[in-house]
Each structure stands twice: as structure tokens, then as C-alpha cells.
């Protein structure tokens, strides 16, 4: 809202605006340093492109212009609003939450007001205190409007993302329902046929097998769905544990299965002692490790699975994250079947390994689950044999860095 020009202290406003403009680079540097320290991401990622870095001084220019010219409005058409919205889009793509974004602006306001408070002391002339307050009010408005532009754009993008996720989940439900329906139809048809008098004993056996196979498949899909809903319920309570504990728990749960297949499951002893969401990490590890056991290579005299983790980034593509890798020396995945691995119901060894019971849902559930907390899931294909399945969870908290510094191992490696 433009300020009433008849009471506006034009002269003082122009002086303050010019000083603000003159110091913009210095203010931007201060802001950059404080953001970087707060969110533990590299300064390269705070404003990753030159273009964005150039936008920040423009935000300060916009604030100065708004102060100098009381007739000027900050609306959708103002260039400064476009820059503020781009900042919102950037932070959204980096997985920030609205609170972190508001904190950034709070820091910018603190820096600008501290600078102006010092500047006010050095302004020659005897301007009434009221004039200073009018200027302060106008500055506060400018900051507020820019913050609103950034945050409302950020929230628009977040809500679009939630819609997209809902659509994906709906599609997932449809696919699963379709699969369950197929199982039920097969069971119904086979049991109806069984009741017929014309069925001879050899056919009877075939129908019984159909019923047993489909009932087992139903059971497994239902177990998968149950584990997925358990993570979602647990995540709401957000039970956090240290990563080494989550890994030990997952391995303990799979002890019998590993023993039955003669697979040795190892957990690296330098897993970073960082707090993770227990439900998410245990679900992912259980899926990956049980696959490694299931798809182990009987021909190998020693069969093993190994769980390791590192803290990686930040780099220009990703923020700091904990990357957890499950490697095995199992049967591996043929090159032409790697692309679809994480798709629902996709099974890469359907025709070659007939004794490995499964639904093809595990990997898609892992991906869905880690993505819901801002992580990623993927497979790596080492030269030679075996496979590596990995997932990451964001690690932007200061406590994580402190935890890493505490371990002599990691300190030695200079992470
Ligand atoms: P499934 O219930 O079939 O195990 P998943 O979604 O967990 O379903 O895995 C999809 C497919 O990926 C599996 O059917 C298998 O072909 C392949 N796969 C997963 N993990 C491994 C592994 N460690 N080694 C070899 N193949 C694997």
C-alpha cells in the first residue's frame, strides 16, 4: 500500500535508501554466511547459480527503491517480486520447509535493520524521530511483501507436490487392488471348478495349486501393504534411533532367513551415529537385505550381504545426506532389466529364478517411503557380480555434524 506522500520524509528516506544500496554486497555476504551456517548446506547451494546470487542484491535494491519512492507498490508486476518467487522455487526444490524459509528472511531483516540502525547514527542533520519511524515502517512493509511473495510461491509449489503425490498413491492403490483382484478371481474360479463332479484327480491337483499360489501371493501383498502403513503411522510419532541401532534391528529380524540360505550379513562398524527415522530406515533396510538374501547366488561358496553408510554432499546436486548402501555378491540383475526395477510389481528374475517368492512391490515401497521424507532410492551396478541397492535420507541438522565430529574414525577421515 503506497504511503501518504504528504507526510513522507522524502529526504531522509532517500539518504537511507542510498546507504542501503551502497552496502548491498556486504549485506548479501553476511546473509549468505548466516544461512550457510544455519542449514549446514554449502554456500554453493544457498544460491547455486550466478543468476540467483545476482538476485539477492536485487532484493535489497527493491527494498531501497520502495523506501525512496512512497508511491511505489510491491505487487505481482514488480521485478523484485519475481526474484523473491524464484527464491521460493529454489528453496522448494531443495526440500526446505516453510519454517526454514521464514528464518532466512528473519535473518535478512535482522541484518538490514542492524545496518540501518548503525547508519542512522551517522546521518548529518536533525531529522525528527518521527521521520525515522516512518522510514522504518516503510522498510518493514517492503520486507514483509517480499517475504510473502517468496513464501506464498513456495507454498503453491508444495501444494502442487502434495497433489502429485496423492495422484501417485492413488495409482499405486489401483495397481495393488488390480493385483489383489486377479488373485481373488483365480482362487474363486479354481475353487468353483474343484466342486464340479467332472474334475479328475490330476486336474484337481492343478486347481489346488492355483489356489495355494494365489493365496500365498495375496498374503505377501497384504504383508507389504501392512509394512507400508506401519511406517506411515510410525513416522507420525517419529521414533528416532541412531543409524547403527536401526541396522542392527533390521539384521536381527532377518537372522533366520539369512541362516536358512547360508548368507553372512555384515554391518560396517563405522556407520555414522546419526539419528534417523526408525520406521523408514528399518523398512528400507529390511527390504534390501531380505532381497539380497533371497537373490543370493547358490553357486558361490561364500554368500554375503553388507550394510554400509556415509554422509555425502553437499554438492551442487544434493544437500547433505546419509547414503546407506546394501551390497551383496548375489545373482545380480541383467543389464536389460535394470531400468524398471523400482516399478510396482516388476520382477527381474520371474523367468529365471522360480523359487524366490515375492510380489515385486518391495522396491517401489522403499522408493515411495524414502521420497516421502525427502530422500532417494536407487540401485548401482558394480562391475563384476552382485548388486548394490542404496537409499538416502536428508541430513541437514546441526546435531548430525556434531555427532560425526564426535567419532574419532570420521574425524580421522576428515569428513
Ligand atoms: P520381490 O518381491 O520380487 O523381491 P522387489 O520389488 O523387492 O520384489 O524387487 C524387484 C525385483 O528386483 C526382484 O523380483 C528381483 O528380480 C530384483 N532384485 C531386487 N533385489 C535384488 C538383489 N539384491 N539381487 C538381485 N536381484 C534383486
Notes on the protein architecture:
61% of the residues lie in helices and 10% in strands. With 415 residues, the protein is an alpha+beta fold. The protein has a 5-stranded mixed β-sheet with strand order 2-4-5-7-6. A two-stranded antiparallel ribbon has the order 1-3. A hairpin with a 6-residue loop joins strand 6 (376-380) and strand 7 (387-394). Helix 5 (79-93) packs across helix 7 (129-194). The site of adenosine-5'-diphosphate has 21 residues, from helix 11 and helix 12.
Please provide a brief summary of the model.
The chain is an alpha+beta fold and 415 residues long. The chain is built from 14 helices and 7 strands.
Task: Please give the largest β-sheet.
Answer: 5 strands, mixed
Find the structural class using helix and strand composition. Answer: alpha+beta
Strand content: 5-15%
Global geometry: elongated
Spatial ordering of strands, largest sheet: 2-4-5-7-6
- Assembly of the depicted chains: single chain
Distance between the termini: 50 Å
What is the arithmetic mean of pLDDT?
86
